[in-house]
Amino acid sequence: FAYYRFYLLKNMPVCLIRPLNKLKSIFNPNSCFIRSKYWNADLEYLKKFKGPVLYPNEVTSKWLPMVSDPTPPPVEKKLVNVIINFGPQHPAAHGVLRMLLELEGEIVLRADPHIGLLHRGTEKLIEYKTYNQALPYFDRLDYVSMMCNEQCYSLAVEKLLNIDVPLRAKYIRTLFAEITRLLNHMMAIGTHVLDIGAITPFFWLFEEREKLMEFYERVSGARMHAAYIRPGGVAQDLPIGILDDIYEFIKVFGTRLDEIEDMVTDSELWIERTRDIGIVTYDDAINYGFSGVMLRGSGIRWDLRKTQPYDAYHLVDFDVPIGTKGDCYDRYLCRMEEMRQSIRIIEQCL
């Protein structure tokens, strides 16, 4: 006990001096604590910052962050939209183009198209060809509407040379132009439905396309690049029995279209993914130079088969369907109705 008493008496001045010096430095205005880098705020100052301030008023909006907190406020991060590559290697764009798309959710804010991936230099290639030698190059321009490209080229050559095509050849051209239209629209609708997630209509439509490809093969020997429509008419007359087979096809094809419409047209998922999507207004369709279904889907009744008839189109009767909103759903309906009108034209040609 005597030892501990001696130790406390000896060291008490040191134990008391250190706290007293700290208190003195706190209340001394010239203390190094005030002049140092960090300032310890008093309790009255800290009371103002108790509790969250959800809605600043005139007073609280002037409050600054605590000086004693050395951490800088977090930097506000800007929202960055998603940028994706559409193509050239993409299931819906197989090598024909590339687009850089800026997306906000499912809305495309900006598109940067890179075209020319399908360019073959056709104009240069046919400079040293005869009219018939140049014909096969036009099949490759649009490998979904092969004979229509041949027909366009042949009409241009016939206009330059003032060639009068026989009436039978005109009807054959018109017949296969509408078969090609069926091929085109079935490809467009089938792949569109497949991209949204339905695979059954895709198989049904491609089954019908194979039947039409057989008609291509029977008249030309090739399933796709036929080179059948040529300047002055067609390559050769129709083989025996093909007209009967075409009639049997169109007789049941209307029923298959009804089955497709029963599955797709009133589907809630299909309507949700196509209605009010990709709207092209009446004025935009004209100003952008659209044609075909893109133009008619926006409510413009413009069809070269009616406005500038060629081959035997002035001898057949058909209607031109148009849309009302100019969205994907209207363009789908236009294609479905145009296939029904193609059946009418084929029947009249037969």
TrEMBL record:
It comes from the Eukaryota. GO terms for cellular component: mitochondrion. SUPFAM superfamilies: HydB/Nqo4-like. The keyword Kinase does not apply. Keywords: NAD, Translocase, Transport. One of its GO terms (molecular function) is quinone binding. Pfam families: Complex1_49kDa. NCBIfam families: PRK06075.1. Belongs to the complex I 49 kDa subunit family. This is Complex I-49kD.
